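Journal club prep — side note

Before the paper discussion, L.F. wants everyone to see what a predicted structure for a comparable chain looks like in token form. Sequence:
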Amino acid sequence: MQDRAFYERIGAKFQSERERQKITREHMAEQINISSKFLYEIESGRKGFSCEIFRNMCKYLHVNADYILEEDDLREVFSLVNNYLDPKGMFIFDLNTKYKYEQMGETTIAENREEASFIWDNYYDPEEEINEYELAIFIPAGGDSDLYRKFEEVHYQRAYDLAMVRRLLEEAGMEFVTAYDAFTKDVPKPESERIYVVAREKGKSAEK
């Protein structure tokens, strides 16, 4: 049985991210095919959730493994995944690398596009290994108006190195299989900015 404190922490993170994106609980629940009451219970830590629901929530809110900031929480997530996988089932996920965050450092990126414009202010703390970026998005109001609607977001991501990810997977009971440089079949390089990690369920019997 998963730790209640874990569900409370993860539920609070989901709620914070949903509210930051100005998404109502009712709308998100409809999109991921659960009731708004169940989503409330997840966000408040009163109920646990399946691996499928966890995946759907991450996908809907556009968050991945490096948005989980604490080692203990990431280990618990891996344990949750392991519990729900079929025997020898595969688990594939991606994350940004420490190298990418170090290269971004403290910088500002601005782009003016036809459909929208944005300003990205990035900060990386090498001691805490936390990357923070503030994003201001400007979207045309539409019609004959020359006005723009402004949306602001703040994101925090943890810089996990591959050795730590492998250790947390194994501590969660999974088998680390391999890792790839993103969009290739090459092994990760020191300058890889994003990697895919492949793990496998370990410990279950295939016999019914």
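L.F.'s comment for the group: The chain has a mean pLDDT of 88. Keep this in mind when we get to the figures.
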